[in-house]
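Onboarding guide, step 5: your first structure request.
Type a short instruction followed by the sequence, for example:

Predict the 3D structure of this protein.
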Amino acid sequence: MHRQAGFAIRRLKDIENIRFLSRVFWFSLEFGTVIEAGEVRAYGAGILSSYGEIEEFRGMDHRPLDLVEMGTADYDITAYQPVLYRAESIQEVIEVVGGFFEQASDGYIGELRSRAKVVSR
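The system replies with structure tokens like these:
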């Protein structure tokens, strides 16, 4: 999916769409969680590489994967992420996030952004 994200970013010209894609990347490949064997587990590199965050992530607000919410949510790189997006399986990550990266274009993301509401955390 990292490769898919790289190809996707190269297709984009609009800076707001690039920001949207980068946020989806952040909340999935960097700070994504998944249900495995009935337990919340981290798959995002940002969680896995942070000793403190790996100890705390299960207590965060876990929301279902939602591309519009993920793509418009703010985050703070200097603090633990209070909101994380959880998939019900790795297959869901591949379908939803991988599918997003495969389809990403200025038109597609512009359409997603038009459906966005302000996300406050």
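Each response can be followed by summary notes, for example: The chain has one domain: 2-114.
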